[in-house]
Every structure is written in C-alpha cells, then in structure tokens.
C-alpha cells in the first residue's frame, strides 16, 4: 500500500511539473512575441526620429496651422452653407517651452507616440499568433479577420481623432478667453498631450465592434439587449461627444456623435451575426443527437 502511494505521489508530482513547464513555456513564447512587437515599434520610432522635421512640422503641429486640411474643408463648407463663421484661417495663441529639456523630451515622446500608432497593427498580429494555437479550427476561422478589422478600426479612429476631434478642440480652446487681458500661451507638453490623447482615445473608442464581438461570443452581450438599451446608448454617446469636444456648438457635437452612433449600430449587427452562428451550431448539434 505504501509503495502504491509513493508511486502515485511521484506520478502526481510529475504531472505538476509538466503543468509548470507548460506554463513557463507559454510565458517564454509570450515574451518573444512582446519582444518582437517592441522591436517593430522601435523601428517606427527610429523612422519618426529620422524624419522628425516632417513629423513635427506637418503632423504634430498640423492642427495649429491655418492651412490644415480640416480648416480648409471647413472654409469650403462655410462657403457652401453661406456661414463664414465656419472658416478657420489661423489659430490664436503661442506654443512655448518652459523647461530646459522640454524640446528634447518633446522629440522623444512624439517619436514614441508615432511608433506606437504605426506599430499597433503588428502588436495585434503578434497577440493573434500567441492566441491562435489555443483555438479550435472553427474558432480560428471565426476570428481569422481579427487583426485586419481591429487594425482598420484603430487606423480609422486615429484619422477621425486627428482630422476632426483634435483640430476642432484646439481651435476652440486656443481662441477661448475669459478676459482680454489674459494671453493664451500653451506649453508644448500641454499641446502634445492634448493632440495625442484625443487622437489615441478616438482610435480606442473605434474598437467598439471588436469589444461587442468578444462579449457576444462569451454570451455576455446580445443584440436584443443592445437594441433595448439604444436610448441609453444615445445619451451616453452625446455625453462622450460633449466631453471629447469642448466646443459649445451642436454641429461639432453632431460630427463627433455620428461615427459613435454608427459604431453602436455596427455592434448590434455584429452581435446578431454571432447569435445566428451560435443558433446554427446549436441546431446542428441537436440534429446530430
């Protein structure tokens, strides 16, 4: 009896060691996926550093220039609607640096932001490569477009944030004054953080359909629940739009709210397709029995 117990204990111990090795093997694989992602981001950081004159003058400082694409389109829209108030030809205020190493820090931080934005699709691809072996064939087929759709929505959100939300917010905040005796001078850190936050936040918000897909697959979210909560979603979207865009006019809020409404409706369609696929699978199992 004691020998059997010893043998059983040895077998149990070996199983525990196999589990531990398997766990640490997965950690090691994940580590290399993350290392490759960091290298890809670092490559884009170096490219942004090399072409920094273009990155700073045309991209980072773009919303502060009167000839920025968004302002030119607003001028055309103002001419079409006979509303000259839409046209923006210059941004008031100055961008200043108040720290000894402020401009050096600006270059490093802005290059890091550019590297993260351009390296994000590759990061998603490495995450997908890590998760893929653990999925069944049907699950792999169902999630085969994850990297493409998530990257597409992220880039779309980045473009929307950079060309719509950021310039609208900057033009309003730069010209806002509570008193004529107060001059608007903004630190470069404040300006960069505002542009980066608005742009990256928009890219993250545009991941809503992906989040809906994951929650629907897990059975947490259903299209019926999303349809019944549409009125609450509309209120939440309007609140988010009001926070994102500090401009008081309803047109700007409408421009920001419209994509969010569209994303919510797309999420309902995504949740419905997931539910149909689950129902179809359930019917196939029932017929097989």
Explain how this protein is built.
With 289 residues, this protein is mainly alpha-helical. It has 2 domains: 2-203, no CATH class; 207-289, no CATH class. Helix content is 78%, strand content 2%. The chain has helices at 2-50, 52-60, 69-81, 102-131, 137-142, 146-175, 188-205, 208-217, 223-228, 230-244, 250-288, and strands spanning 94-96, 185-187. It has a two-stranded parallel sheet. Helix 4 runs antiparallel to helix 6 and helix 6 (146-175) packs antiparallel against helix 7 (188-205).
What topology, given as strand order, has the largest sheet?
Answer: 1-2
Number of strands: 2
Question: For the residues shown, what is the average pLDDT?
Answer: 83
Poorly predicted parts: 13-21
Main sheet characteristics: 2 strands, parallel
- Fraction in beta strands: under 5%
Order of helical and strand elements: HHHEHHHEHHHHH
Give the total of domains. Answer: 2
Determine Rg (CA atoms, Å).
Answer: 26 Å
Binned, the helix content reads over 70%
Write down the oligomeric state. single chain
Descriptive key words:
two-stranded parallel sheet, mainly alpha, 2 domains
